[in-house]
Amino acid sequence: MKNGGQRVTTFFTYLQANCSRGETEFLDIRFNKSLHERFCDILICDEKSTELGIRFRPLPGNSVFWFNMDEYGQVDYLTYHAARPPGENGHKIGLNTWTRVDTFFLPPKK
Q1: Confidence band (pLDDT; 50, 70, 90) for 108?
Q2: So where are the chain's domains?
Q3: Which of 22, 80, 81, 110 would give a disulfide with 86, using CB separation of 3.0 to 4.6 Å?
């Protein structure tokens, strides 16, 4: 990959959110009631939770951090995620901060 290579980590922060939905869902990490129920203030815990991936609520100021690669430098497919739409008349603004394998370099403008 050019310009810095693979993303090693992601730090995602919700800056603004005025919405009824809009969660960040990790599609292949299943909600486990016994493990995750105590985090229902930041996770969506509803009747669909055990059927869907784990879903983080879009709460302004909250952040989610994850590794995109495993210990062997391979893509960690458990980190596949989706930004769900904020719902009717809602909005959300987030900020991604990534670390990469190499230095990100842009040549100077001529």
Answers
A1: confident
A2: 7-100
A3: 22
